[in-house]
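Pasting as-is:
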Amino acid sequence: MAENKPIAFKAEIKQLLDILIHSLYTDREIFLRELISNASDALTQMDFVMLTDRSVLDPDVELAICLSVDEDEKIITISDTGVGMTRDELTTNLGTIAQSGAQAFLNATDEGVDQQQLADVIGQFGVGFYSVFMVAEWVRVTSRSFKPRAKTATWYATGEDTFTVEAAEKEHRGTTIEIKLKEDTEEFANESRLRDIIKKHSDYVRFPIYVGDAEEQTNRQTAIWRQAPREVENGEYNEFYKHLTLDFEDPITRVHFVADAPLRIFSLLYIPTNPERNMFSLRKEDGLKLYARKVLIQEYTTDLLPPYFRFIQGVVDSEDLPLNVSRETVQATALMGRIKKILTGQVTKQLTTMAEKEPEKYAQFWQAFSPFIKEGIASEQSNRESLYPFVRFHTTVHPESWVSLKDYVERMKTDQDKIYYILGDDDRSVARSPHLDYFRKHGYEVITLTDPMDSFMLLGLREFGDYQLQNVAAPDLELPVAEGTPGEEPAPEALPEKDFKKLVECFKEQLGERITDVRASDRLSDSVARLVDPEGSMDQEMQRVYRLMDRDYEVPKKVLELNPSHPMLTRLSALPADEKLSTAVIEQIYESALLIEGLHPDPAGMLPRIQALMEAALR
């Protein structure tokens, strides 16, 4: 037959090519990644051959990939010095869709060879080459095999249903691909554009890649995450982090994890200093960079860590990834779940180590990323307990330092069977809360929660170890039985029952439907009053969640509890019920209680009444 006679592709090629060109790939720049990956595979095979055979064509030629651009003709040329192909191999490998020379090489390789070297073989599906027709008007592939007596041949196709193979001339071993760009893809006839694509997708290909006449290679070549951690200096880690993110600051910590079994995984994860990305950040979305054999598969992969660790930056590379045919996405399989579990465990381990050995650095982490951990506790169903040790609080005993739940439990009183906490809008209002009277008086430590996320967190944090968490503002709280403090002054004498009942009626009459009840409290010592939830109402945590979400929130009607022993009530009971001063004091007691609970809708509205009370006090 004539050498240039058109040959039909095998399979229903026209229809299949249409699918490959128009449906399989989502981004046209992927064509360059696929062609470079194929060239890398050819170089890997050549490197493998030369381990045992130096009688090959051009044994001393550098194993490399070179790209050039004719901007006038809109032609891209990609050359490699790999194993090359004979005429028959060109016909077989490029004339059959899903015929992978890389896969055939792997299948023919003895099992006893170095598996690390074989791990660099990238393309195994046999369809990546055809992505070139997304951008090409025509493609010419000229190849000369490493076998000294093999003749050069050229394969040519336009993406239709036939191709041609002819004899050709080529001085050196390897393959050269010429791509005539379509009119709407001429953006790729630019060396800078090609360099950007290489740095994005193929920066860590094992062999050097040169673009144009520049002697400096475009790709970094060394994938730091595939090195043993003991071989990488701290400065190299930080340099790579800044290259990855364009962050100006060093990360707080990192996790470099390499495993051969049961899965072959390479990962390098970083916790940044700040959760907010700077304006120059390269990472515009959450997610890890996902590589397969050092070639970028996904820019933002969110399936490898739980959502509460989404602030983590880094790369993951695996030879076991279940890729789809286009190698642009990963198939959802149990294997991905196993990788996620492994990486989550490594991050958890690193945070635990940092908390134990570097508490100051961990405090820096907690102040920056506590909302994410709290979100995880609130939202996770199966693994939230693993986050409990990472939570830090301020308490009434240690208002300035961070305290863990473990620290709190170790300091609990011998008769204490619950972990006590209080919710508030800020530290100052919490410190003055009447709910703390009893606990302050008897020396019980109470966790103070003033972050808006704390209410959400408590939806998932109900107990720690053997101890339940208990809100000190709960109306059904069972107070711990505590002995009196030595030298403690006796409580003031309580109002007579008759006078107290009369005072209660005054409060009820004046406050009306704003409250559900007024009653005496045995839990107040320094404070005159407090507000608690009525029986059967929504608990305080959910009230705050609804308020923060602004979901049909109204100021809840609560029970006003009064301290019968407080001097203010004793004096108030002596005033006529209808006197202006009496009504002003009752209003102020109620609204002060609202204010301390963070429930007052209009704090500034109290100012005229406060001024009137001050004037009355000065008469």
